[in-house]
Every structure is written in C-alpha cells, then in structure tokens.
Amino acid sequence: MKVVEYVVPLGSDGRRRVRHVRVGARVLEFMVQYELRIGGEWHPVVRYDTAHGFAHRDILHWRGPAERRELPGGDYNLALSYAEEDLRRNWESYRARFLREVKPE
Known about the structure:
- With 105 residues, the chain is an alpha+beta fold.
- It is built from one helix and six strands; from the N terminus they run E-E-E-E-E-E-H.
- It has one helix spanning 76-102; strands at 2-10, 14-23, 26-38, 41-49, 56-59, 67-70.
C-alpha cells in the first residue's frame, strides 16, 4: 500500500491538498481539497473524497451545509482523475463563489 500526500499553491491565497492511497495502480481512497486562506486561517471551499463509501464532491459554504454530489463513474481511479481535472479547470470560479459568501456584495 502506498500513501501519497502533497500540497500545491493555487493563486495567491489558495492551495490544493491531495491524499490518496493505492495498492499497485488501484486507488483505494482519496481526498482532493481546495482551501482558501482568509483572516490567517485555511478554509475548505470544495472537497472531493471517498468518505461515506462513495466518490463525491462537497461544495462547502462559508455558513450553512455542504452540497454533496456523487462523482461520475464508480471507479476511484477515474473519480480521482476527474476531481483533479475539475479543480484545475474551475478553482477560480469556486474561489469567487466562496468569497462572495464571505463578503456579500
């Protein structure tokens, strides 16, 4: 079993945290999370993981409950790839949405 963990900066105030567990090429579990630094603290904005026994994305809010949606496909390898690509393409829109909640216009 191999555990991989790393953090990658995203923009001037964000980061992507990744953790996945593999046996050979097969992903057993994963977590990919985009976080923003606000007021000196890190806040999760969106998280993709396999908690609760299935691959899903949680859209987190400044206040209020998270929105949970199952990721496409049942394979954790494909779901991890989807999560990483979705975050690479959309982190700026996730950031803008979260910051609107922090400081309503």
